[in-house]
Amino acid sequence: MVLRIVGLKEEDQYGKVDEPFTPDWHKYISKSSFALNDEPILFGDGSRMNNTARPGIIKPTGTVESKVDLKTIGHLFRAFLDQYEFSEDTENGVNIHEFWGAESSGLASFTGIATFDEFAKIVYGMMLNSLKLEVSDEAMTSSEEWIYKTQKTINVDESSFEILTNNDAIPIMFYDVGVEIDGADAPGIVTSFNFEGKNNLNVDKTVGLNSRAPQIKARAQKRELTVSLVSTLRPETVELIKKAEHGEAKDTPSECKIYKMDLKVIIAACENAKDKCEITFPKCVVKVDYEGSESDEIETTFNLTGLGTGSVTKADGTSITTDMYVKLVNDVDEIAPSSP
Q: Given Cys at both, which of 38, 176, 229, 334 links 86, Cβ 3.0 to 4.6 Å?
């Protein structure tokens, strides 16, 4: 039995890859599923029984859940965001991967592999429709929803199947994650961070006459970014609550102001000082929820929605306007297809 893993490799051409297929890495997963969703179409007409069946449309989807590490997470950001730039920091001996959201509706596609004990699926034309990152009191986890073009089922032999894992790819824990708001440490004790991003890929426009399956790459529609922070209620939290509720740090609601905050999530595993990831949402609107219940300690939940009007300075010193920017530093090579 082959261990349950997934692997990814960016495609040079949508839905096609040179064989034999070799991913950039394999990663152990918590859950994975890939299905064609090809429900048969049944006809009965005037009969009380179905008497005809025809194949239905194919709109494949996949889900993957796993622990986050700083060696493989770059592929998820490459798939989710439409801009990517790679550079080498020769002075510090690391590579810099930068990802950010812009206006392109054409996202990168990937070929993947997923093992299911006795067999594996090679999945072509994978595109990331949604990405969730969550961390509270254990490891940070990612949940991905993919769409894809087609698949190939292959038998696998444990004795000959080579697993391409990186021993330095350690799971990120809650104590590896820090949060900054408007350039300063978040007030109170932040007990959880949740991010959800959606690309709203237009799958319906990929399948037309003369084909059951997707014929072209889906285009991304509106990008939705939501972030949730849960914090203990402390005196230093009150000012942020006022800003969220009143639009500014005043005791009464503003006539017309809305508070927009800068959020940065900093991830760095203490075992490897060179690897680091910064996720920046340069401008977000925020709402706050809290409730007093008997003598229980009050928690505040800050719900943020990203705006595309914030600016970020990239590694080369240039400024970009975006709703989300990621700077990932590690020793992983450029994320790219096998051939130019």
A: 334
